[in-house]
Amino acid sequence: MLMDQAGWHMTGKLVIPHNISIVALPAKCPELNPVENIWQFMRDNWLSNRVFTSYDNIIDHCCEAWNKLVDQP
């Protein structure tokens, strides 16, 4: 499993099954994490330069952006 080095990922309290190996990404290297590329694409295209009116408004915009992403070929 590929993981960044966020504290909740690297805590000693995390129980890791024997059949899973953790590969920690170097600190401060979001370009190596594929999920970060997805978030950056969504921010660049649909989520930046907006004023959100509420938490629910944020969720609605994020869901709309996600649906636009998965609808692309």
Structural class: mainly alpha
Tally of helical runs: 3
Secondary-structure element series = EHEHH
How large is the radius of gyration?
16 Å
Question: pLDDT under 50 segments (min length 5)?
Answer: none
Number of separate structural domains: 2
Write up this protein:
By secondary structure, the protein is mainly alpha-helical. It folds into two domains: 1-29, no CATH class; 33-73, no CATH class. The protein is 48% helix and 5% strand. The chain has three helices and two strands, in the order βαβαα. Strand 1, helix 1 and strand 2 (23-24) form a beta-alpha-beta unit. The longest helix is centred in the C-terminal third of the chain and has 17 residues, at 55-71.
Q: Helices and strands in order, then pairings?
A:
Blueprint: E1 2-3, H1 7-10, E2 23-24, H2 34-47, H3 55-71
Parallel strand pairs: 1-2
Helix pairs in contact: 2-3
Characteristics:
73 residues; mainly alpha; 2 domains; two-stranded parallel ribbon; 3 helices; 48% helix; Tc1-like_DDE_dom; Tc1-like transposase DDE domain-containing protein; RNaseH_sf
How would you summarize what this structure contains?
The chain is mostly helical and 73 residues long.
